[in-house]
Design a protein that fits this description.
heterodimer, A: about 450 residues, alpha+beta, PmbA/TldD fold, 2 domains, five-stranded mixed beta barrel, 9 helices, 17 strands, about 20% helix, globular, B: alpha+beta, ten-stranded mixed β-sheet, nine-stranded mixed β-sheet
């Protein structure tokens, strides 16, 4: 079906809420049009388009809640969804942690939509693939890439008068370019809201250059090295850390933010004082919706780390009430402050170190210290006297982002990371970090 | 992994787990009425006729109804009960030598015929960018057939209340035994899949799977330390009888350190052990890093097999189709062609299969209508084969597909997915206790823990749930902060002994991700308790400011 405009979405939400006999009702409607093209071995392998609009209705009788979802919008289907939600609510056990629907909120619009998103057509996607493959072919390389775009809207409403509607658009592009003999590999990632700022060929050229420069890799001994981490190389590690900023876990003693003897580490200086991180739905570079769909709370600009100190923790409404603290909406983005230097400038000012393009397969080893393991990939180079001296073999690391953010030497210019698997939209700077812990060598290219 | 719809559930300490959810929520009583086979056949015929008329040389139609029920609990509370359903039709064609695919959730003859025509148009557009035309290995049409996961108790008929009570009972048992917190979950899946192709097959399948993971967390407030112990359950391709564990389903771990399970699971008993063991982990001796002989229990080893053998022998990765995301593979065609590439020691034999009862990978037919089969991947330590689909079989000189083509939804295009890949049991009689007797300096590892491997499957690092020191043939004490790092080929060549068939059982991965956009798949891996000599163990304890 056609994507709903604000009036259309509001009409459906009102109709749904009028149908229920429950104590309260929450409605979420989201519609999207998602296109993608995938290629490998210099040839398109799949291309697709999915259009869908979903309605979720959640009702409660006392502390018993039920949810139903449908993707049909005629009157009969709407009624069916409401009755199903009511039935689940009646059968559900009482949830002692149930929080009633929130009161009216003020949602200040954020810039999640760009009118140029109409450029997302099958021809546009095919051209992206062509530009990327053509650039690789001309250098005798093999490209494998994925471009995806999404336009749509989100709408929330509840029986206490909450209402929000906003449109969204975004694109995401990654390509891995490899030499025919498999000895060199380069990668690039681009995310944007406006297709006008996106150049598939220019992005692909970066992956191509990294592939060509990464053949003849030499092995360095594992150990602690100064590293220049491109934004995509640290974003996954930071994602793990900010996903664990939960106050309840910390208060319960099962988080790296738990305090010995009880309580949490809010206010402690856990990181280098150059580290400043905040969430801001209206950030110009990484805007997100001004609400959190689950709690329906309005998002606020919130400092997470201020001059190296833990500035706030995430309190859901239940835990906030229990501990007498203000509740916070789930953050949609993570913005890390930086400077104005490019990755190249950070490299130019590095005496000895390692440039890391990308990290891969990162998993939690120990939640107590937030120790993570993972590997470098698709462009790892040795730096000497400000120059890239030669490619090096990939490393496995065992490092905690807490330690990493204590060893910050310098921060570069933040860049948008649009990884679809991430819980957050992120603006992350390139960073030079001392004593990053590489524990073994990998033969992978 | 692509951001789809996620169900946010509490998981191990320090975070939450995002579980992909497909489809929309429905009432439980609606789960039971299947879509009539005659209706599905008429839809499939409408699509295939339209595709053929539009010039397709081949067409397959998948009509799917995917039903899930997820229950999540935290301590003594039920946090969430979700019923979902997703139905629709996916049409794949070959025209002009290229693939085209279109899916629709509008299940009418007109709609699927239109989808088929669009798929042909996409195939023709792709054909211009295609190097070589798609070559499908032949499949004999099987006419109208049906296959179902064998089970005796349908999860869809068990009251939600009973399931929630079982999880809460497990949580209570864990907390009574020493856990400060417990979370437990129950995932139940029913895939009603209808496949038809212009080769003359109309295959109706009813697939059931379930999994019940939990995490016990023990906190010592005074020291600020916390440790977790996850359940030792293995997901299974069976019905709710999985929870009716009898004495014959229980296996004594080496040294009697815990109880393990085969063919059924006692979640309350395992949770009780977990509560005690999570507390025990708080004071376990921190491991001295160095070389150890590792004794790996099947509930742990399955994930090492999955990552270092299962993914490494996927032919699409070997060829470069996954280069941008999951990666490629060190197990290249030139190594395989030598017929001498020693993947492991002489006693290492890996068999791929889609037939083992109770496994996650067991199906009657894959999503190209190829019957489930068994074949060797590694024989006497040598790499002898891969996992292939119909369009890949000719590349490795096979006359037929291995039956490895799957999609996770009617709306996803099918591609190469891993079958069960299992390590054959030892041929000489050997129990876990007897195996431990020969180890001078070793570590016994049980349960699935941290896991990470590089994009060509050379370098990996794994942790577990329980670690025990082995000294001069005896299990002496629990250890903490253990992980092992190895190179795939060196690791499997260090394989020196394995227990016999009596100890063989399967572990499995319920949400294995691959592809862009990411699709999930469920797969089992069997082994018996196995020994590896001289493996590098690191200490993972760290202090933060």
């Amino acid at each position: 079906m056609k994507l709903l405009d604000k009036d259309g979405a509001q009409r459906i939400a009102a109709k749904v809420m009028a149908l229920t006999k429950a104590d309260e009702c929450r409605v979420a409607i989201s519609g999207s049009r998602k296109g993608n093209v995938r290629y490998a071995r210099n040839s398109v392998s799949t291309a697709g388009l999915v259009e869908d609009t979903q309605l979720s209705v959640s009702v409660a009788f006392g502390k018993r809640q039920g949810t139903a979802q449908i993707n049909e919008f005629d009157d009969k289907s709407l009624e069916k969804a409401v009755r199903r939600a009511e039935e689940v609510a009646r059968l559900a056990p009482e949830n002692p942690e149930f929080m009633p629907a929130i009161g009216k909120q003020d949602f200040k619009p954020s810039g999640t939509f760009n009118a140029n998103a109409n450029a997302f057509t099958p021809e546009y996607r095919a051209e992206v693939a062509f530009q990327s493959i053509d650039a690789a072919r001309k250098k005798g390389l093999v490209a494998a890439g994925y471009f995806s775009d999404s336009t749509g809207f989100e709408c929330i409403a509840n029986s206490n008068g909450v209402f929000g509607y906003q449109e969204l658009a975004s694109l995401n592009f990654t390509v891995t370019t490899r030499t025919e003999d498999g000895r060199g590999s380069g990668w690039v990632n681009r995310a944007a809201y406006d297709p006008n700022g996106f150049d598939a060929r220019a992005a692909s050229d970066i992956a191509i250059e990294k592939a060509l420069r990464s053949v003849e890799a030499k092995a360095l001994e594992p150990g602690r090295y100064t590293v220049v981490l491109e934004p995509s190389a640290s974003s996954d590690m930071l994602n793990f850390m900010f996903g664990a900023f939960d106050a309840r876990q910390a208060d319960e003693g099962r988080s790296f933010l738990s305090k010995k003897g009880g309580g949490n580490r809010l206010g402690d200086r856990l990181f280098d004082e150059k580290v400043n991180v905040w969430a801001d739905p209206w950030d110009a570079g990484a805007p997100v919706l001004p609400w959190d769909a689950q709690s329906m709370m309005a998002r606020q600009r919130t400092d997470l780390i201020k001059n190296g100190q833990v500035a706030s923790l995430d309190y859901d409404r239940y835990w906030a009430q229990k501990t007498g603290k203000p509740a916070s909406a789930d953050h949609g983005n993570i913005i890390m402050g930086g400077g104005s230097k490019s990755t190249e400038q950070l490299v130019a000012e590095t005496k000895k170190g390692i440039l890391v393009t990308r990290t891969w397969y990162i998993r939690m080893v120990d939640p107590q210290s937030l120790l993570l393991t993972g590997l470098t990939r698709d462009g790892t180079f040795y730096i000497e006297n400000g120059k890239i001296k030669h490619p090096i073999k990939n490393f496995r690391f065992n490092e905690s982002p807490v330690v990493m953010l204590n060893n910050i030497d310098e921060l570069g210019k933040p860049m948008l990371i649009g990884d679809a698997s991430s819980r957050f939209r992120m603006m992350i700077p390139a960073m030079r970090v001392r004593d990053f812990n590489f524990t073994s060598l990998s033969d992978a290219v | 992994m692509e951001r789809r719809t996620f169900l946010k559930v509490s998981a191990a300490a320090g975070g939450t787990m995002l579980v992909p959810v497909f489809g929309h929520a429905i009432a439980a009583e609606e789960l039971l009425s299947p879509v009539a086979v005659a209706f599905k056949k008429s839809l499939a015929d409408a699509a295939m006729n339209a595709a053929t008329k539009a010039g397709a040389s081949y067409c397959d139609v998948r009509i799917g109804r995917y039903l899930n029920q997820f229950i999540t609990t935290r301590d003594t509370n039920v946090e969430n009960i979700v019923n979902t359903e997703s139905s629709g039709v996916g049409v794949r064609v070959i025209a002009g030598g290229a693939y085209g695919f279109v899916a629709t959730n509008v299940m009418t003859p007109d709609s699927v015929a239109e989808a088929a025509r669009q798929a042909v148009a996409i195939a023709r557009a792709n054909a211009r960018l295609q190097g070589e035309p798609v070559q499908l290995a032949p499949v004999q049409g099987v006419g109208e057939v049906a296959w179902a996961t064998p089970f005796t108790k349908d999860w869809r008929t068990v009251p939600v209340k009973d399931k929630a009570e079982m999880l809460i009972a497990a949580n209570k048992a864990g907390m009574a035994a020493g856990a400060t917190f417990m979370t437990s979950m129950l995932f139940q899946v029913n895939q009603q899949k209808y496949f038809a192709s212009t080769d003359g097959s109309y295959i109706d399948q009813d697939i059931h799977r379930l999994w019940s993971p939990f995490t016990a967390t023990a906190v010592d407030k005074a020291s600020g330390k916390f440790r977790t112990r996850d359940g030792l359950s293995s997901p299974a391709g069976m019905g709710y009888e999985f929870f009716d564990a009898k004495p014959q389903h229980k296996i004594r771990a080496a040294g009697g350190v815990t109880t393990l399970y085969r063919g059924a699971y006692d979640i309350v008993e395992d949770a009780r052990a977990a509560g005690r063991q999570a507390r025990e982990k708080l004071t376990a001796k921190s491991v001295e890093p160095g070389k150890y002989d590792l004794v790996l229990s099947p509930e742990h080893l399955f994930l090492t097999i999955h990552e270092s053998v299962g993914h490494a022998t996927e032919l699409d990765r070997v060829l470069g189709y996954e280069a941008n995301y999951a990666g490629t593979s060190f197990a290249t065609l030139d190594k395989w062609q030598t017929k001498k590439f020693k993947y492991g020691s002489d006693i290492v034999n890996f068999v791929a299969d889609r037939t083992t009862p109770g496994s996650l990978g067991a199906v009657g037919y894959d999503d190209e209508g190829v019957a489930g089969k068994r074949w060797d991947i590694i024989k006497d330590g040598v790499l002898v084969n891969y996992q292939a689909t119909r369009d890949q079989a000719h590349i490795i000189g096979e006359k037929a597909s291995h039956g490895c083509s799957f999609a996770d939804s009617w709306s996803s295009v099918q591609f190469q997915r891993m079958p069960n890949v299992s390590l054959a049991a030892g041929t000489k009689p050997l129990t876990p206790d007897e195996l431990v007797k020969d180890v001078k300096k070793g570590i016994y590892i049980l349960g699935r823990g941290s896991y990470s491997i590089d994009q060509q499957r050379y370098n990996f690092q794994f942790g577990g749930q329980l670690y025990y020191e082995i000294k001069d043939g005896k299990i002496t004490q629990p250890l903490g902060d253990v992980a092992y790092q190895a190179n795939t080929q060196e690791f499997w060549n260090a394989c020196s002994a394995m227990c016999d068939e009596r100890d063989w059982r399967m572990g499995g991965s319920f949400f294995d991700g691959k592809g862009q956009p990411s699709q999930i798949s469920a797969v089992s891996h069997g082994s018996s308790t196995t020994r590896f000599n001289g493996i590098n163990v690191i200490n993972t304890a760290r202090k933060i400011a």
